[in-house]
Each structure stands twice: as structure tokens, then as C-alpha cells.
Amino acid sequence: MERAADENGHDGLGARERDILALERRGFPGPGAKERAIREELDLSPVRYYQLLNALLDDARALAHDPVTVNRLRRVREARRAER
User: Fold this and answer.
1) What pLDDT is stored for residue 14 in this prediction?
2) For 62, which of 25, 26, 56, 77 could close a Cys bridge (C-beta 3.0–4.6 Å)?
3) Is the CB of residue 45 less than 8 Å from the CB of residue 1?
């Protein structure tokens, strides 16, 4: 599947958005490790990170950039909503 990209090879997502998706692709060894990475690597509070991530899950550009990660996270989000 070919993605639409600009002349710099980007797909319309900013660096922070791409970094958020990259962080979501990683595995973390234990509790607190992900929150520490969010603070240290992205310079965001975990609350702000999850706000941005949630918005990204509804963004077609994010889906085009990383469909596996976005679809996995959408399934997790829907499962959590269904539990409520």
C-alpha cells in the first residue's frame, strides 16, 4: 500500500505525532517505564500524551503512517469503552 507523502517524505504528521506513534510501538518492561519515557523523551506529561494519542487515533494521517499500531490502539480503546 503506497502512502501519500510530501517532498520531504513525510505523510503530513508532525515530528511529535510520529514520535508518539513510535513510542506506542515499543514494549515497556514494567509499570512506570512508559510514563518515564513519555516525560524524558517527549517532554510531555502523561495526561497530555494520552490526549494527543487519542486525537491521533482518529486522524487519517496517523492511520496512513502506521496502520498496524493505530488499528491495535483503536481496538484497545473500543474494548475499554465497551467495559464501561
Assistant:
1) 95
2) 56
3) no
* 3 state DSSP class of 46: helix
d(CA 53, CA 34): 14
Low-confidence ranges of the chain (pLDDT < 50): 1-7
Q: Do 56 and 69 form a contact (C-beta atoms < 8 A)?
A: no
CB within 8 A of 3, min separation 6: which ones?
11, 64, 65
pLDDT at site 31: 79
Residue 42: name the closest of 67, 69, 22 by CA: 22
Answer yes or no: are the C-beta atoms of 66 and 23 closer than 8 Å.
no
* 18 neighbors 65 (Cβ within 8 angstroms): yes
Residues across the chain? 84
